[in-house]
Design goal:
Layout lengths: L6 H8 L8 E2 L3 E2 L2 H20 L2 E4 L5 E5 L8 E6 L7 E6 L6 E8 L6 E2 L4 E2 L12 E2 L5 E9 L4 E9 L2
Length: about 160
């Protein structure tokens, strides 16, 4: 993944040293609109590359941490559980300052394997049967996918399952 530029490096790379105008290819002056387009294309590419990563989250303890990483580009992550589990777990988020969306794939082998989410998480799913306690309780075992979308004040969750065969 690309390393974000410091403010000084950015100015040195994209601003002409005497005029302060935007530049490309070391000296060619460009308009501010062209500059924005160039940055948007760069950000789009870096975010697409970042989106491809699949982060393994440890499911062996009582807490499963979904760690978005420490970069400013950590808007969206895909997580997969390190192993199936049969006991209750608590979900925690880490480095989620810029997070807007996540997908988490996991497998449960017992309906006793509930998931307790942090405050600010909501879902209309009937398996999220105790909204005041923020607990997801499945009625079946299998491979699950939960997606979360941040609204600016809360996380909205959607759950789906591929039942065990």
């Amino acid at each position: 993944m690309a390393t974000p530029l410091s403010r000084a490096d950015y100015k040195g790379r994209y601003n002409h040293p005497t005029t302060g105008k935007y530049k490309a290819n070391n000296s060619q002056l460009i308009t501010s609109a062209e500059h924005r387009d160039m940055i948007d294309q760069s950000d789009s590419f870096v975010n697409k590359v970042d989106d491809l990563s699949l982060v393994t989250s440890d499911t062996s303890g009582s807490t499963i941490t979904l760690d978005f990483g420490s970069t400013a580009l950590s808007y969206e992550k895909r997580f997969v559980g390190s192993a199936s589990f049969a006991t209750p777990k608590t979900i925690a988020l880490a480095n989620n300052t810029n997070a807007k969306h996540f997908t988490f794939l996991f497998e449960i082998t017992s309906i006793a394997a509930t998931l307790t989410f942090p405050s600010g998480f909501k879902s209309g799913d009937t398996r999220y049967n105790n909204p005041s306690a923020l607990i997801f309780t499945s009625t079946e075992i299998g491979i699950f996918k939960v997606t979360g979308d941040y609204t600016g004040s809360s996380w909205i969750l959607e759950f789906s399952v591929l039942p065990a065969v």
